[in-house]
Amino acid sequence: MRPRILDLNVLQTLVAIADTGTVTAAADRLAYTQSTVSMQLHRLEALLEVSLHEREGRRIRFTAEGEQLIGYARKMLALNNEALDSLRQRQVSGQLSLGIPEDYAFLLTSVLSHFSQLFQSVQLQVICGSSVRLLEQVQAGELDLAVVTRQTRSPGGEVIRREPLVWAVGAEKQPSLTDPIPLALYSPGADVFREVAEQALFSAGRQWRLAYSSQSMTGLMPVVVAGLAVVPVTRDMLTPQLRVLDERSGMPALQSIEMALHRPSGRPTEPARQMAELIREHLAGDG
């Protein structure tokens, strides 16, 4: 009889469910469909011939066997990453320019730290800007890589993560949610967040007004925290100063946004190839 071998991709899905609590959130994190996540979980149970989870409404509760396997899965994934890092640590030199929207910079902190430790001979330059501007710089060959919000008008790129959008207000103060709803939005053309918010409100027949606009969340925060406006954000962008509005608020549900990795046409440099691989690993596995 052939030995049963655990698939690391399936174990990554198991850990994502454990971290997020639901199949939907795990699918968003991994950029999978919900049916793919469910299928992988059931396939794992069939392979092991043991029940790993129970459903409590939309949330997943793991059995004792499931919790035990999650512990092993984390160790196996960590060992996998350790092996990859060890093989990567050959001499790589040169220059690398990476574009990131300011509001995504915190997501890549561990990536940048990891890269600098592995490839100390690479001169890394990080440039912040709007997703639209960064995409233009990639297409012009001015950037080696860029992680941006996938644009509806020119999608392209490699989708590496999906993030649900939510409505947020100040943790202690919020505006009236009667029409017209005061919104804090990114400047026109700065990102997809604004388009998603406007479309959701239009589809729901709600009226709104622009209370404040900025190129980044840093600029929007004071107005939202002061209780003067509502803002669309990803859950990763939430801070203790913000509070999510749930469905009881009457605000319409928002679509997810996609984060995409873009690079110029042609063969990438070795530093760019290594950075792209680290970004895929970290952004698909975190959240």
From TrEMBL:
Keyword DNA-binding in annotation: yes
Keyword set includes Transcription regulation: yes
Domain HTH lysR-type: 6-63
Keywords: DNA-binding, Transcription, Transcription regulation
GO molecular function: DNA binding; DNA-binding transcription factor activity
Similarity field: Belongs to the LysR transcriptional regulatory family.
Entry protein name: LysR family transcriptional regulator
Organism this protein belongs to: Marinobacter manganoxydans MnI7-9
